[in-house]
Design brief:
The structure is a homodimer of 213-residue chains.
Chain A: E1 4-11, E2 15-17, H1 36-39, H2 42-45, H3 57-66, E3 69-75, H4 76-79, E4 105-109, E5 117-118, E6 124-128, H5 132-143, E7 147-152, H6 154-162, E8 168-174, E9 182-183, E10 194-201, E11 206-212
Parallel strand pairs in A: 1-7, 1-8, 3-4, 3-7, 4-6
Antiparallel strand pairs in A: 2-9, 5-6, 8-11, 10-11
Protein backbone atom coordinates (compact mmCIF):
# COMPACT_ATOMS: atom_id res chain seq x y z
CA UNK A 1 0.00 0.00 0.00
CA UNK A 2 1.35 3.39 -0.98
CA UNK A 3 1.32 5.61 2.10
CA UNK A 4 0.93 9.38 2.31
CA UNK A 5 3.87 10.68 4.34
CA UNK A 6 3.77 14.28 5.55
CA UNK A 7 6.84 16.07 6.86
CA UNK A 8 7.41 19.69 7.80
CA UNK A 9 9.53 21.93 10.01
CA UNK A 10 7.62 23.69 12.78
CA UNK A 11 8.60 26.16 15.49
CA UNK A 12 8.08 25.48 19.21
CA UNK A 13 5.04 27.74 19.03
CA UNK A 14 3.56 25.77 16.15
CA UNK A 15 4.34 27.86 13.08
CA UNK A 16 5.61 26.55 9.75
CA UNK A 17 6.22 30.03 8.36
CA UNK A 18 6.73 33.39 10.04
CA UNK A 19 4.66 36.57 9.81
CA UNK A 20 4.47 38.80 6.73
CA UNK A 21 4.94 36.15 4.06
CA UNK A 22 5.45 37.60 0.60
CA UNK A 23 6.87 36.59 -2.76
CA UNK A 24 10.12 38.21 -1.69
CA UNK A 25 10.04 36.50 1.69
CA UNK A 26 7.98 33.31 1.15
CA UNK A 27 8.72 31.87 4.59
CA UNK A 28 7.92 35.11 6.43
CA UNK A 29 10.02 36.79 9.11
CA UNK A 30 12.22 34.23 10.83
CA UNK A 31 10.76 31.36 8.78
CA UNK A 32 14.01 30.45 7.06
CA UNK A 33 15.54 29.62 10.42
CA UNK A 34 13.17 26.65 10.64
CA UNK A 35 15.29 25.10 7.89
CA UNK A 36 18.76 25.86 9.27
CA UNK A 37 19.07 22.29 10.53
CA UNK A 38 18.49 20.76 7.09
CA UNK A 39 20.52 23.25 5.07
CA UNK A 40 23.49 22.37 7.31
CA UNK A 41 23.33 18.69 6.31
CA UNK A 42 25.60 17.18 3.66
CA UNK A 43 22.62 14.97 2.76
CA UNK A 44 20.68 18.10 1.75
CA UNK A 45 23.54 20.13 0.26
CA UNK A 46 24.66 17.48 -2.22
CA UNK A 47 21.31 17.09 -4.00
CA UNK A 48 20.97 20.89 -4.05
CA UNK A 49 24.35 21.35 -5.75
CA UNK A 50 26.14 22.66 -2.66
CA UNK A 51 29.40 21.43 -1.17
CA UNK A 52 30.26 20.36 2.36
CA UNK A 53 27.87 20.02 5.22
CA UNK A 54 27.44 17.98 8.36
CA UNK A 55 26.66 14.37 9.07
CA UNK A 56 24.77 14.11 12.35
CA UNK A 57 21.73 12.51 13.96
CA UNK A 58 19.43 14.36 11.57
CA UNK A 59 21.10 12.70 8.58
CA UNK A 60 19.39 9.38 9.06
CA UNK A 61 16.06 11.11 9.60
CA UNK A 62 16.46 12.86 6.28
CA UNK A 63 17.54 9.68 4.52
CA UNK A 64 14.53 7.89 5.99
CA UNK A 65 12.31 10.71 4.80
CA UNK A 66 13.55 10.51 1.22
CA UNK A 67 13.50 6.72 1.00
CA UNK A 68 10.80 5.02 -1.08
CA UNK A 69 9.11 8.24 -2.21
CA UNK A 70 7.72 8.08 -5.76
CA UNK A 71 5.76 11.33 -5.95
CA UNK A 72 5.22 14.57 -4.01
CA UNK A 73 2.16 16.72 -3.31
CA UNK A 74 2.48 20.40 -2.39
CA UNK A 75 0.41 23.56 -2.23
CA UNK A 76 0.58 26.41 -4.67
CA UNK A 77 2.58 28.62 -2.33
CA UNK A 78 5.22 25.97 -1.82
CA UNK A 79 5.52 25.59 -5.60
CA UNK A 80 6.08 29.31 -5.87
CA UNK A 81 2.77 31.09 -5.68
CA UNK A 82 1.84 32.75 -8.94
CA UNK A 83 1.68 36.30 -10.27
CA UNK A 84 -2.01 36.04 -11.12
CA UNK A 85 -3.68 33.42 -13.32
CA UNK A 86 -1.08 31.41 -15.24
CA UNK A 87 0.00 33.03 -18.47
CA UNK A 88 1.78 31.29 -21.32
CA UNK A 89 3.63 34.50 -22.17
CA UNK A 90 4.97 34.70 -18.61
CA UNK A 91 5.64 31.18 -17.44
CA UNK A 92 6.59 31.01 -13.79
CA UNK A 93 8.54 27.95 -12.76
CA UNK A 94 8.23 28.38 -9.03
CA UNK A 95 11.04 28.60 -6.51
CA UNK A 96 12.68 25.45 -7.72
CA UNK A 97 15.01 26.51 -10.57
CA UNK A 98 15.81 24.55 -13.71
CA UNK A 99 16.55 21.25 -12.01
CA UNK A 100 14.38 20.79 -8.93
CA UNK A 101 15.60 18.32 -6.29
CA UNK A 102 12.59 15.99 -6.52
CA UNK A 103 13.44 13.84 -9.57
CA UNK A 104 9.91 12.46 -9.59
CA UNK A 105 6.37 13.69 -10.37
CA UNK A 106 5.13 16.56 -8.22
CA UNK A 107 1.44 17.48 -7.92
CA UNK A 108 0.63 21.10 -7.08
CA UNK A 109 -2.78 21.93 -5.61
CA UNK A 110 -4.07 25.17 -7.11
CA UNK A 111 -7.24 26.85 -8.31
CA UNK A 112 -5.61 27.85 -11.61
CA UNK A 113 -5.39 25.23 -14.36
CA UNK A 114 -2.07 25.06 -16.15
CA UNK A 115 -0.33 22.51 -18.42
CA UNK A 116 2.26 20.27 -16.76
CA UNK A 117 5.77 21.67 -16.47
CA UNK A 118 8.58 19.17 -17.19
CA UNK A 119 11.96 20.29 -15.89
CA UNK A 120 15.44 18.79 -15.92
CA UNK A 121 16.30 15.75 -13.85
CA UNK A 122 12.94 14.03 -13.96
CA UNK A 123 10.77 16.49 -12.04
CA UNK A 124 7.40 17.23 -13.64
CA UNK A 125 5.00 19.64 -11.94
CA UNK A 126 1.36 18.75 -12.58
CA UNK A 127 -1.26 21.30 -11.51
CA UNK A 128 -4.36 19.82 -9.91
CA UNK A 129 -7.48 21.93 -9.61
CA UNK A 130 -10.07 19.43 -8.38
CA UNK A 131 -9.01 18.93 -4.79
CA UNK A 132 -6.89 16.93 -2.39
CA UNK A 133 -8.36 13.49 -3.09
CA UNK A 134 -7.82 13.83 -6.80
CA UNK A 135 -4.22 14.96 -6.24
CA UNK A 136 -3.61 11.99 -3.94
CA UNK A 137 -5.02 9.56 -6.48
CA UNK A 138 -2.86 10.99 -9.28
CA UNK A 139 0.21 10.98 -7.05
CA UNK A 140 -0.35 7.39 -5.93
CA UNK A 141 -0.68 6.28 -9.53
CA UNK A 142 2.46 8.18 -10.52
CA UNK A 143 4.42 6.79 -7.56
CA UNK A 144 4.25 3.29 -9.01
CA UNK A 145 3.87 1.45 -5.72
CA UNK A 146 6.15 3.72 -3.75
CA UNK A 147 4.93 6.23 -1.14
CA UNK A 148 3.72 9.80 -1.68
CA UNK A 149 5.34 12.73 0.17
CA UNK A 150 3.15 15.57 1.38
CA UNK A 151 5.51 18.53 1.47
CA UNK A 152 3.19 21.26 2.77
CA UNK A 153 2.56 24.07 3.35
CA UNK A 154 0.36 24.27 6.37
CA UNK A 155 -2.86 24.99 4.53
CA UNK A 156 -2.65 21.90 2.32
CA UNK A 157 -1.48 19.77 5.24
CA UNK A 158 -4.50 20.86 7.30
CA UNK A 159 -6.81 19.61 4.57
CA UNK A 160 -5.15 16.18 4.36
CA UNK A 161 -4.92 15.85 8.15
CA UNK A 162 -8.56 16.84 8.65
CA UNK A 163 -9.63 14.30 6.03
CA UNK A 164 -7.70 11.55 7.84
CA UNK A 165 -5.61 10.83 4.73
CA UNK A 166 -2.14 11.13 6.28
CA UNK A 167 -0.52 7.77 7.14
CA UNK A 168 2.73 9.10 8.57
CA UNK A 169 3.77 12.50 9.87
CA UNK A 170 7.24 13.75 10.73
CA UNK A 171 7.41 17.05 12.60
CA UNK A 172 10.86 18.61 12.65
CA UNK A 173 10.36 20.80 15.69
CA UNK A 174 12.78 23.68 15.94
CA UNK A 175 13.36 25.15 19.43
CA UNK A 176 12.55 28.72 18.45
CA UNK A 177 9.54 30.99 18.58
CA UNK A 178 8.24 32.76 15.47
CA UNK A 179 5.46 34.60 17.29
CA UNK A 180 3.18 34.74 14.27
CA UNK A 181 2.66 33.42 10.75
CA UNK A 182 1.18 30.16 9.48
CA UNK A 183 0.08 27.75 12.21
CA UNK A 184 0.29 24.10 11.25
CA UNK A 185 -2.49 22.55 13.29
CA UNK A 186 -5.17 25.25 13.21
CA UNK A 187 -8.55 23.65 12.58
CA UNK A 188 -7.19 20.12 12.29
CA UNK A 189 -9.17 18.73 15.22
CA UNK A 190 -7.30 15.71 16.57
CA UNK A 191 -4.56 13.50 15.22
CA UNK A 192 -7.08 10.87 14.20
CA UNK A 193 -5.10 7.78 15.11
CA UNK A 194 -1.61 9.15 14.42
CA UNK A 195 0.60 8.28 17.37
CA UNK A 196 4.16 9.24 18.26
CA UNK A 197 6.33 6.27 17.26
CA UNK A 198 9.88 7.64 17.20
CA UNK A 199 11.79 10.68 18.46
CA UNK A 200 15.28 11.75 17.41
CA UNK A 201 16.67 14.59 19.52
CA UNK A 202 19.43 16.98 18.51
CA UNK A 203 20.37 20.42 19.90
CA UNK A 204 18.93 22.09 16.78
CA UNK A 205 15.77 20.13 16.09
CA UNK A 206 13.56 17.38 17.54
CA UNK A 207 12.27 14.91 14.96
CA UNK A 208 8.87 13.55 16.00
CA UNK A 209 7.54 10.72 13.86
CA UNK A 210 3.86 9.80 14.01
CA UNK A 211 2.16 6.82 12.38
CA UNK A 212 -1.15 5.03 12.49
CA UNK A 213 -1.26 2.34 15.12
CA UNK B 1 22.25 32.54 42.49
CA UNK B 2 18.65 31.43 42.92
CA UNK B 3 17.25 30.66 39.46
CA UNK B 4 13.65 30.94 38.24
CA UNK B 5 12.76 27.56 36.74
CA UNK B 6 9.59 27.31 34.69
CA UNK B 7 8.00 23.99 33.77
CA UNK B 8 4.73 23.14 32.12
CA UNK B 9 2.98 20.49 30.02
CA UNK B 10 2.05 21.63 26.51
CA UNK B 11 0.26 19.97 23.60
CA UNK B 12 1.84 19.58 20.16
CA UNK B 13 -0.24 22.54 19.02
CA UNK B 14 1.02 24.73 21.85
CA UNK B 15 -1.78 24.69 24.42
CA UNK B 16 -1.37 24.28 28.18
CA UNK B 17 -5.13 24.00 28.76
CA UNK B 18 -7.98 23.04 26.47
CA UNK B 19 -11.03 25.04 25.39
CA UNK B 20 -13.93 25.95 27.68
CA UNK B 21 -12.02 26.19 30.96
CA UNK B 22 -14.30 26.55 33.96
CA UNK B 23 -14.20 26.04 37.68
CA UNK B 24 -15.67 22.60 37.09
CA UNK B 25 -13.17 21.84 34.34
CA UNK B 26 -10.14 24.02 35.14
CA UNK B 27 -7.93 22.48 32.45
CA UNK B 28 -10.58 22.74 29.74
CA UNK B 29 -11.66 20.03 27.31
CA UNK B 30 -8.86 17.50 26.88
CA UNK B 31 -6.52 19.47 29.13
CA UNK B 32 -6.20 16.76 31.77
CA UNK B 33 -4.64 14.45 29.21
CA UNK B 34 -1.60 16.74 29.14
CA UNK B 35 -0.87 15.41 32.61
CA UNK B 36 -1.42 11.68 31.98
CA UNK B 37 2.34 11.13 31.76
CA UNK B 38 3.00 12.57 35.21
CA UNK B 39 0.01 11.07 36.99
CA UNK B 40 1.27 7.65 35.83
CA UNK B 41 4.60 8.10 37.64
CA UNK B 42 5.32 6.58 41.04
CA UNK B 43 7.37 9.73 41.70
CA UNK B 44 4.20 11.80 41.41
CA UNK B 45 1.73 9.38 42.99
CA UNK B 46 3.63 8.94 46.25
CA UNK B 47 3.74 12.64 47.22
CA UNK B 48 0.05 12.92 46.24
CA UNK B 49 -0.94 10.05 48.54
CA UNK B 50 -1.56 7.54 45.76
CA UNK B 51 -0.14 4.04 45.46
CA UNK B 52 1.70 2.35 42.62
CA UNK B 53 2.85 3.97 39.43
CA UNK B 54 5.59 3.64 36.88
CA UNK B 55 9.30 4.28 36.93
CA UNK B 56 10.43 5.29 33.45
CA UNK B 57 12.52 7.86 31.59
CA UNK B 58 10.25 10.65 32.83
CA UNK B 59 11.05 9.80 36.45
CA UNK B 60 14.49 11.37 36.40
CA UNK B 61 13.07 14.45 34.66
CA UNK B 62 10.57 14.85 37.43
CA UNK B 63 13.18 14.30 40.14
CA UNK B 64 15.40 16.88 38.45
CA UNK B 65 12.47 19.26 38.35
CA UNK B 66 11.73 18.96 42.05
CA UNK B 67 15.36 19.13 43.18
CA UNK B 68 16.63 22.29 44.90
CA UNK B 69 13.30 24.16 44.76
CA UNK B 70 12.65 26.38 47.79
CA UNK B 71 9.54 28.27 46.68
CA UNK B 72 6.90 28.26 43.92
CA UNK B 73 5.12 31.02 41.99
CA UNK B 74 1.77 30.42 40.30
CA UNK B 75 -1.15 32.34 38.86
CA UNK B 76 -4.52 32.75 40.46
CA UNK B 77 -6.17 30.17 38.20
CA UNK B 78 -3.61 27.54 39.05
CA UNK B 79 -4.16 28.18 42.75
CA UNK B 80 -7.86 27.66 42.24
CA UNK B 81 -9.39 30.78 40.80
CA UNK B 82 -11.75 32.49 43.20
CA UNK B 83 -15.49 32.87 43.56
CA UNK B 84 -15.30 36.66 43.48
CA UNK B 85 -13.25 38.88 45.82
CA UNK B 86 -11.84 36.86 48.73
CA UNK B 87 -14.26 36.55 51.60
CA UNK B 88 -13.37 35.59 55.13
CA UNK B 89 -16.77 33.98 55.59
CA UNK B 90 -16.16 31.78 52.54
CA UNK B 91 -12.47 30.92 52.47
CA UNK B 92 -11.45 29.09 49.34
CA UNK B 93 -8.32 27.00 49.64
CA UNK B 94 -7.81 26.37 45.94
CA UNK B 95 -7.56 23.00 44.22
CA UNK B 96 -4.88 21.76 46.54
CA UNK B 97 -6.69 20.20 49.50
CA UNK B 98 -5.64 20.27 53.15
CA UNK B 99 -2.05 19.17 52.55
CA UNK B 100 -0.75 20.51 49.24
CA UNK B 101 2.25 18.72 47.69
CA UNK B 102 4.57 21.73 47.73
CA UNK B 103 5.87 21.70 51.34
CA UNK B 104 7.38 25.16 50.82
CA UNK B 105 6.17 28.75 50.40
CA UNK B 106 3.95 29.36 47.36
CA UNK B 107 3.31 32.85 45.96
CA UNK B 108 0.06 33.38 44.08
CA UNK B 109 -0.25 36.29 41.66
CA UNK B 110 -3.68 37.88 41.95
CA UNK B 111 -5.45 41.22 41.87
CA UNK B 112 -7.29 40.44 45.11
CA UNK B 113 -5.43 40.94 48.38
CA UNK B 114 -5.87 38.17 50.97
CA UNK B 115 -4.02 37.12 54.12
CA UNK B 116 -1.57 34.23 53.76
CA UNK B 117 -3.02 30.74 54.00
CA UNK B 118 -0.92 28.23 55.97
CA UNK B 119 -1.84 24.60 55.30
CA UNK B 120 -0.59 21.26 56.55
CA UNK B 121 2.83 19.97 55.56
CA UNK B 122 4.66 23.26 55.27
CA UNK B 123 2.83 24.86 52.35
CA UNK B 124 1.88 28.51 52.83
CA UNK B 125 0.08 30.37 50.06
CA UNK B 126 0.94 34.09 49.99
CA UNK B 127 -1.15 36.30 47.72
CA UNK B 128 0.83 38.94 45.82
CA UNK B 129 -1.01 41.86 44.25
CA UNK B 130 1.84 44.08 43.08
CA UNK B 131 3.14 42.18 40.11
CA UNK B 132 5.58 39.56 38.88
CA UNK B 133 8.81 41.20 40.01
CA UNK B 134 7.55 41.59 43.53
CA UNK B 135 6.42 37.95 43.62
CA UNK B 136 9.82 36.84 42.37
CA UNK B 137 11.63 38.89 44.99
CA UNK B 138 9.46 37.46 47.77
CA UNK B 139 9.88 33.93 46.44
CA UNK B 140 13.65 34.25 46.15
CA UNK B 141 13.87 35.50 49.71
CA UNK B 142 11.65 32.66 50.93
CA UNK B 143 13.62 30.05 48.99
CA UNK B 144 16.69 30.65 51.17
CA UNK B 145 19.27 30.22 48.44
CA UNK B 146 17.43 27.49 46.60
CA UNK B 147 15.70 27.97 43.23
CA UNK B 148 12.17 29.21 42.56
CA UNK B 149 9.70 27.15 40.50
CA UNK B 150 7.35 28.92 38.13
CA UNK B 151 4.38 26.56 37.89
CA UNK B 152 2.17 28.45 35.42
CA UNK B 153 -0.38 28.87 34.04
CA UNK B 154 0.25 30.25 30.62
CA UNK B 155 -0.74 33.83 31.38
CA UNK B 156 1.70 34.19 34.27
CA UNK B 157 4.43 32.37 32.34
CA UNK B 158 4.01 34.77 29.41
CA UNK B 159 4.66 37.70 31.70
CA UNK B 160 7.85 36.22 33.16
CA UNK B 161 9.10 35.06 29.74
CA UNK B 162 8.43 38.45 28.14
CA UNK B 163 10.29 40.17 30.96
CA UNK B 164 13.30 37.89 30.42
CA UNK B 165 13.16 36.66 34.02
CA UNK B 166 13.07 32.91 33.35
CA UNK B 167 16.45 31.18 33.76
CA UNK B 168 15.38 27.66 32.89
CA UNK B 169 12.35 26.26 31.09
CA UNK B 170 11.18 22.66 30.80
CA UNK B 171 8.44 22.00 28.26
CA UNK B 172 6.77 18.62 28.68
CA UNK B 173 5.42 18.32 25.17
CA UNK B 174 2.58 15.86 24.81
CA UNK B 175 1.98 14.42 21.31
CA UNK B 176 -1.69 15.38 21.15
CA UNK B 177 -3.71 18.24 19.73
CA UNK B 178 -6.11 20.24 21.90
CA UNK B 179 -7.33 22.46 19.06
CA UNK B 180 -8.08 25.41 21.31
CA UNK B 181 -7.63 26.80 24.82
CA UNK B 182 -4.74 28.61 26.45
CA UNK B 183 -1.67 29.02 24.23
CA UNK B 184 1.60 29.11 26.07
CA UNK B 185 3.75 31.32 23.87
CA UNK B 186 1.24 33.91 22.62
CA UNK B 187 2.79 37.35 22.77
CA UNK B 188 6.07 36.18 24.27
CA UNK B 189 8.24 37.39 21.39
CA UNK B 190 11.39 35.30 21.30
CA UNK B 191 13.07 32.98 23.78
CA UNK B 192 15.48 35.74 24.78
CA UNK B 193 18.60 33.64 25.17
CA UNK B 194 16.95 30.42 26.34
CA UNK B 195 18.42 27.55 24.31
CA UNK B 196 17.54 23.88 24.11
CA UNK B 197 20.07 22.07 26.30
CA UNK B 198 18.55 18.62 26.87
CA UNK B 199 15.83 16.41 25.41
CA UNK B 200 14.38 13.27 26.98
CA UNK B 201 12.08 11.36 24.63
CA UNK B 202 9.40 8.88 25.67
CA UNK B 203 6.35 7.60 23.74
CA UNK B 204 4.03 9.73 25.91
CA UNK B 205 5.92 12.99 26.26
CA UNK B 206 9.03 14.80 25.05
CA UNK B 207 10.87 16.73 27.76
CA UNK B 208 12.59 19.79 26.30
CA UNK B 209 14.87 21.66 28.69
CA UNK B 210 15.98 25.20 27.88
CA UNK B 211 18.54 27.30 29.74
CA UNK B 212 20.46 30.52 29.28
CA UNK B 213 23.72 30.03 27.43
Amino acid sequence: MSRLRFRISMSLDGYTAGPEQSKKDPLGIGGERLHDWVVALAAWRGPHGLEGGEVNESTRVMEEELANIGATIMGRNMFGGHPGPWSSSQPWNGWWGKEPPFHHPVFVLTHHARPPLALQGGTTFTFVTDGIESALELARRAAGGRDVALAGGAHVAQQYLSAGLVDEMEIHQVPRLLGGGERLFDGVGDLDGLRLVRTVATPDVTHLKFARS
